[in-house]
Amino acid sequence: MMTLSQQDLACFVRGRDRVIEELRDRLIPYKGQKKAMSKAQCEEFVDELIATSYNNWRTKMYDKLQYCCQGIR
Q1: DSSP per residue over 31-45, as a string?
Q2: What is the pLDDT of residues 7-62, one digit of tens each?
Q3: 1 and 15 Cβ atoms separated by less than 8 Å
Q4: C-alpha separations of 51 from 8, 24, 48, 66 in Å
Q5: Contact status, residue 67 vs residue 73, Cβ threshold 8 Å
Q6: What dihedral do alpha carbons 46, 39, 18, 50 form, nearest 10°?
Q7: What does 54-65 look like in DSSP terms, one character per residue?
Q8: d(CA 65, CA 59)
Q9: Is 29 left (phi over 0), alpha (psi -120 to 50) or beta?
Q10: Cα first-last separation, the chain
Q11: Where exactly are the structural domains of the chain?
Q12: What's the pLDDT at 3?
């Protein structure tokens, strides 16, 4: 959907296929392996992402930005 409606975004400069590949890599990480993670490995990876993001100053600042831009109080 985004590649059709927002083709002018910088992330689409390298083409639709590359964007989809990069998105797939982020959603189904290999974490240094040649094959996709097992369910347990994926759960551990996601838990690590959450732990890293929780109370991170960047996460808090991004949340504040979104609250401001979206008019959330």
Answers
A1: TT-SSPPPHHHHHHH
A2: 677 777 777 788 888 877 777 767 666 777 788 888 888 898 889 888 899 988 98
A3: no
A4: 34, 22, 5, 21
A5: yes
A6: 0
A7: TT-HHHHHHHHH
A8: 10
A9: beta
A10: 30
A11: 1-30, 37-73
A12: 59
Q: Write the CB contacts of 73 (distance below 8 Å, at least 6 apart in sequence).
A: 67
DSSP state of 6: -
Looking at residue 40, its amino acid is: A
Which token pair is 47?
Answer: 């838990």
Can you give the pLDDT at residue 28? 72
How many CB atoms sit inside 10 A of residue 29's CB?
16
Which residues, at least 6 apart from 10, have a Cβ–Cβ distance to it below 8 Å? none
Q: What is the pLDDT of residue 4?
A: 63
3-class DSSP assignment, residue 4? helix
